[in-house]
Amino acid sequence: MSLSTTHSLAYPRVTTVGDFIALLKPRVMSLVIFTGLAGIVAAPGDIHPLRAFTALLCIAVAAGASGCLNMAYDSDIDRLMTRTATRPIPMGYVAREEALAFGWTLSVASVAVMGLFVNFLAAGLLAFTIFFYVVVYTLWLKRRTPQNIVIGGLSGALPPAIGWASVTGDLSLAPLLLVAIIFMWTPPHFWALSLWRSEDYARAGVPMLPVVSGKPHTRFQILLYTLVLVPLGVAPCFLHIGGALYLAASAGIGLWFLWEAIATYRERDEHKEPAAHRLFGVSLLYMTALFAALIVEKLAGLPALALT
Amino acid sequence: MRARRKRNIALGLALGALAVLFYLMSIVQWHEHSGH
After folding, report:
1. Cβ contacts (< 8 Å) between B33 and chain A: which residues?
2. A65: which of A29, A107, A227, A258 fits an S-S bond (Cβ 3.0–4.6 Å)?
3. Taking the alpha carbons of A135, A139, A145, A148 in that order, is the dihedral positive or negative?
4. Tens digit of pLDDT for each residue in A235-263?
5. How far apart are the first and last CA of chain A?
6. Pairwise CB contact (< 8 Å): A17 & B4
7. ipTM surpassing 0.85
8. Which chain A residues are within 8 Å of B17, Cβ to Cβ?
9. Is A160 in contact with A35 (CB distance < 8 Å)?
C-alpha cells in the first residue's frame, strides 16, 4: 500500500488505518459475523474451536472485502449520495485502485484460508458469496433493476449456510431455511431505508423501487415480503433448530415487524417517513433477536421444539 | 509520517496474526489426522 494522498480535498491527508477499516463496512460485517456464528453454533456435530474461529474470521474478512470492492466500484455514485459521500474513496482518503487491490487481496486470502483449514464446500460458498455481491449485485444489478436488492440479497443471506457447512461439510434444509429468512428480510429492510433516501438514490441514478415504481408500490411490496417473512421466521421450530426462546422471539418480534409494515403501508407523511424509520429499527432488532435466540439456545443446551 | 508508521505496524500485526493462525491450524490439522 503506497502513501496515497487525496486529489479532491483542499487539505490532502495521508491514508490512515481507520480509512482501511472503514472500507470493510464494520457495521455490515458485524451482522454477517453474527449470522455466520449462528450457522456454526446451530449445526449438528463438533468443530475444533480454532477451526470455528478460522471459519468465522474468513466469513468476516470476505464480508469486509466485498464491502470494500463495492465501495471501489460504486465510488462514482457514492459521492452523489448524502449517506455515502463521506466514505473514504469519495472523500479522497483512499485511492480507488488501492481499495480494489485491498479488496481483491482479502477476498482471495479469505477463500484460500477457508479451503486450506476448514473445507472446500465452505470455501466454495464463500467465493460464490463474494462473486454474487461484487459482480452480480454491484456491477450488474444495482444500476439496472429495482430488483437489485432482492436478488443481490442472496449474498448477504448466505453466511449462516457457510457457517453450517464449516461444521458439517454439507448442506441441508435447515441452513437453507436460515438463508431464506435473511433473503426475505432484506427487501423490507432496505426498502424501508430507501423510502426516506429515495431522493439520494434518484440523484445518483440508482433504480431503487421508490424511484422507479413510486412510494405506494414500495410500501405494498414491503408489506407483501413481511407477510411471507414472519411465518418463515417461525419455521426453524419445525426443523428442530429453534426452541421455545426462538419461537417467542420470532413470533413476538415478527408480529411487531408486521405491525410496523402495516403502519408503513398506511403512512402518509412522505417527508419524514416515521413508520419506515421504525420499521428499519424493528427489522434490525428482528434479525438480531432471531439469531441471538438460536445461539443462546444451543450454547445453553436448551432443547429444540419438535413441532412436526 | 506517523500515520504511515501506524499503517505499517497494523499491516505487520495482521500478517503476524495470520502466520500464528497458520501455525496453530497446522497443529490442529496434524493432531486430527494423526488420530490423537
Report:
1. none
2. A107
3. positive
4. 999 998 999 999 999 999 999 999 999 99
5. 56
6. no
7. no
8. none
9. yes
Comparing C-alpha atoms, which of A58, A60, A55, A54 is closest to residue A25? A60
- Helical segments of A49-147, H only: 49-73, 75-78, 96-117, 120-131
Site of grid cell 426452541: A243
| CB A134 within 8 Å of CB A69 | yes
What is the number of alpha carbons within 13 Å of residue A250 lying toward its C-beta?
Answer: 25
Please give the DSSP secondary-structure letter assigned to residue A93: S
Contact B28 A51 (CB under 8 A): yes
Question: How far is it, in rounded angstroms, from Cα B13 to Cα B21?
Answer: 12
C-alpha cell of residue A220:
405494498
Which residue is it, cell 409494515?
A261
| Contact yes or no for A32/A20 (Cβ under 8 A) | no
pTM for the model: 0.92
Q: How would you label A77-94 residue by residue, b for 16+ Cβ within 10 Å and e otherwise?
A: bbbebeebeebbbbbbbb
Contact A133, A62 (CB under 8 A): no
Q: Which of B6, B24, B25 sits opposite A17 (nearest CB)?
A: B6
Superfamily of domain A15-170: UbiA prenyltransferase (1.10.357.140)
Instruction: Give me the mean pLDDT over the A211-239 stretch.
Output: 96
Query: 3-32 in B: which are within 8 Å (CB) of A?
Result: 3-4, 6-7, 10-11, 18, 21, 24-25, 28-29, 32
Distance CA A221, CA A216 (A): 9
Whether A14 sits inside 8 A of B4 (CB atoms) is: yes
Nearest-angstrom CA–CA distance, A214 and A137: 22
Q: Is the Cβ–Cβ distance between A276 and A206 less than 8 Å? A: no
Quick one: cell of A264?
Answer: 408503513
Q: Tell me the pLDDT tens digit for each residue of A92-137.
A: 999 999 999 999 999 999 999 999 999 999 999 999 999 999 999 9
